[in-house]
Amino acid sequence: NEFHSCNTTGDQASSVYVGAGETGGYTDFVFQNNIVREMYGEGLEINPRVTSSQAIITGNVFRNVGKGTCSTQWKCRPGITMSIQSGGGNNGTVIAGNLFFDIGSSCVWDRGGGTPRAQILNNTCFDYGKGAGGGGPNPQGISGYTNGGRATVMNNIIYAPNGTAPFDGSSFDASYNLCATGKACGSMQRGWSSNTVLSADPNSAEFMRLSESSEARNAGSGTSALETDLIGNARLQESIIDIGAFEFGVASREPASMPTPAPTLAPTPMPTPMPTPAPVPTPSPTSPPAAPSTPVPMNPPAAQPTPAPTAPPAPKLEREPGSAKRVKSSRGKHVRRELIRWWRAQQQ
Questions:
Q1: Among candidates 83, 55, 65, 61, which has minimal Cα distance to 14?
Q2: Which run of H or of E encompasses 54?
Q3: Spatial contact of 114 and 93, defined as CB atoms under 8 Å apart
Q4: CA Rg value for the chain
């Protein structure tokens, strides 16, 4: 599905609001393989009024959301709000394998509590904190909103070109994330460089895909909650899982290319066969028998038609043919008889 263009409502619009109403809640909510863009408020809001369980949010793209509310009481909003109005929290939430970019505030607000704690795994969170005034009140890549986050945050790329920090002051269980050099994003972290992804241009087919020398390649930990990455590649291409929403592999480097077929040997040239002579047409039964002729050798050149005999030019006559007047010619009676015979033949 694609949710888009709710960015002029003047209200806190989102693609889906989970848990609304006085007693709203959920069990086994799945939000998967969607595109969410141009939302006035957050991309997705999970905000039940009772203890709820098992929200699974995987394989989605969130872009250009959460900016419309920046000048309102709601302030700038994140890609996903995970919150709770009352009750014991959101139990067992999983946010994995998603791509966030061009976000007004955070990619994820973790303020929902719950047991087991939420897991935020193998996401790519890029170019956040874009709203007016720096995307406040909590523009960090993953935030507890009021420093109250406690999710497990692992194997994520969290990088903002504008320098916004990856985390707020929450007590996340964070490890194996990649963020800007000089920023803190947990233990065993990696630093962003120009080699991390093939392209940071959202218009490129290689946007946010890992390069061969990426710091995120083979740098994650554990096994993935998903069998495939955001574009359908097997999640484990090599011996160790990669950081971020994209797994490095042939399909990541060359998304539009076809596999090169195995080379084949050139066939051995065959001798050129002799051309078969054209068959001699059988004479029609009504045609007179052909005169005997000398056998024609194999593949003779095409016979040229014998030109019709050309009569010798007639000498200038003083009268029409047949006149008693003699022809002025020194060749005598023989020439005259030939000319008369030729002329008569032409009249027939």
A1: 65
A2: strand 52-58
A3: yes
A4: 45
At which residue do the structure tokens 């067992």 appear? 92
Per-residue confidence (pLDDT) for residue 113, from 0 to 100: 86
Alpha helices (runs of H) in the chain, residue ranges in sequence order: 250-253, 332-347
Q: Are 216 and 230 in contact (CB under 8 A)?
A: no
Partnered with residue 2 across adjacent β-strands are 35
**Residue 85's pLDDT is what?**
81
Rounded Cα–Cα distance for residues 222 and 208 (Å): 22
pLDDT score recorded for residue 195: 97
CA atoms within 13 A on the CB side of 107: 32
Q: What is the Cα–Cα distance from 29 to 57, expressed in whole angstroms?
A: 8
What secondary structure letter does DSSP report for 135?
A: S
**pLDDT at residue 6 in the model:** 87
Rounded distance, CA 228 to CA 328, Å? 111
> In this structure, which long-range contacts are made by residues 195-201, counting pairs with CB atoms below 8 Å and at least 24 apart in sequence?
196/157, 196/159, 198/252, 198/253, 200/126, 200/161
- Chain mean position to CA 268: 39
pLDDT for the residue 136: 85
Handedness of CA 97, 102, 103, 106 (dihedral sign): positive
The pLDDT value recorded for residue 205 is: 95
pTM for the model stands at: 0.72
CA–CA separation, 280 vs 283, rounded Å? Answer: 9
> What are the residue ranges in the chain where pLDDT is below 70?
9-10, 250-348
Token pair of 203, please? 């218009």
Residue 86: predicted pLDDT = 77
Which residue in 103, 98, 141, 150 sits closest to 122, CA to CA? Answer: 98
Bridge partners (DSSP) of residue 125 are: 100, 158
